[in-house]
Write a structure and sequence with these properties.
With 540 residues, this protein is α/β, with parallel strands linked by helices. Helices cover 39% and strands 16% of the residues. It binds thiamine diphosphate and magnesium ion.
Length: 540
Amino acid sequence: MTEQIEGHGGELALAALRAAGVNEMFTLSGGHVFPLYDAAYKTEFPIYDVRHEQSAVFAAEAVAKLQRRPGLAVLTAGPGVTNGISGLTSAHFNASPVLVIGGRAPAFRWGSGSLQEIDHLPLVSPVTKKAATVFATDEIPAAVRDALTTALTPHRGPVFLDLPLEVFFSTGEADAPAAPDVPVVEYDPEEVARAATLIAGAVRPVIIAGSDVYAADAVAALREAAEALQVPVFTNGMGRGALPPQHPLAFAKARRTALRGADVIVVIGTPLDFRLSFGDFDGAQVVHIVDAPGQRATHVEATVSPAGDLRLILSALADHRGDREDHSGWVADLRAAEDAARARDAEEMAAETDPIRPARIYGELRRVLAADAVTIGDGGDFVSYAGRYLEPSVPGTWLDPGPYGCLGTGMGYAMGARVTYPDRQICVLMGDGAAGFSLMDVESLVRQKLPVVIVVGNNGIWGLEKHPMRAMYGYDVAADLQPELRYDEVVRALGGAGETVAKAADLGPALNRAFDAGVPYLVNVLTDPADAYPRSSTLA
Ligand SMILES: Cc1ncc(C[n+]2csc(CCOP(=O)(O)OP(=O)(O)O)c2C)c(N)n1
Ligand SMILES: [Mg+2]
């Protein structure tokens, strides 16, 4: 007979969460969710609390992204849940297995006007894989397990459950929950064979690998496939670092040359979206390898689009034994373009300008960041530069907001990263505009002894908007911030530490102090407001 468990709704939910390998919750207090706190408190399950619900969801998302297991945010009914919606939406775009458990006004008097009474489901359904209300206490463990199974099944994504007050606080019993049993998405070997033949027969093939490759734990298989077929690899999102920068097939800076010159472009584990010119590559054939059939592009037709478990598909590509074109000339051409771009970047990263340009900050950061440091980007131009100048060499160390591009991930992602890696360097690269969304959560980090380093590129403007608006209209509005604002003093007031840096020569020592501080530390770098990240169009 299956073992039975008994307890209130919080205890039953926690049993299922533990069984699924969830190790912590991120939350902001609300009476509707007290039973989960009670269950956690009594069994020493870690609770991390924040100052805005979106930070709780972003923290859960960072855990999910980095650890490839469910991240949990617990949000109170009504405004708690609605404040979490940008986080849920980001998780939706990033295919992150996040579970949000919401409180909910009592079901027995629904419609009578209880405090914070709103039906969350219509609000969260469009941005979750599954959203449901659990109406019986006994059903909570099965509902949690089902939700987590859905979240973890490729194509992954967030899920939402809410529990009416009386369901949460009542006592029930259920079978002891088991871990989710995540199905393997089977691929069509025929399609993979066609893809392999196309890539092997290409003269100038290119691979672009994205976040789902890391999420599927397919990094080693990617490397094997690239090596077997001798294809240069570019990465984005959580795919960054999949091949170390020294690898002969690892490329970052020759992307434009590669995409213009390629005859076959293999896009793996990332959508054919605006970051990849919507899959339109001037006549090159496209192989789009996705983790589930629903991820195949509908706006553009790939030559072949295998769908299924990415590790298995990439291993099958690595095993391809047919004829192969010699790609060495193509790889050498790209290497020359890469080296030339690298030399230009090196100059910019060493530039002695006054005011400081963002490139120099990254030049200095590269000296102090350890290989396994987690870097987090939250901002506009300042983060575009981070993407260009920082080169992750360990997979799963780069957290950008993803294609939804939501500002405000910074402190939440930092919290999730610190909880994941108590001993690594965690470094948030933040625009001064972005800082406004989450800096108050430095208080949460200080209080819960979660030190991180925050480097603010302080140009006194919403740079990524101001420059394009000026270019478009000849003037700009709503794009200025207070120049030279002391964000470091904000962090000090919240119990952390920091300093302002105005001269390039002072950057290195400041960063060293920051990583040695042992408390949240903000390095407020005054940068040149005239500096604009070179891009052809921001609205494409
Ligand atoms: C929540 C949210 N609001 C607005 C935007 C639009 N937006 C994108 S980048 C940007 C400017 C960011 O400014 P800052 O963080 O100071 O970085 P900078 O570009 O100045 O380096 C804005 C407002 C967004 N992406 N997300
Ligand atoms: Mg700015």
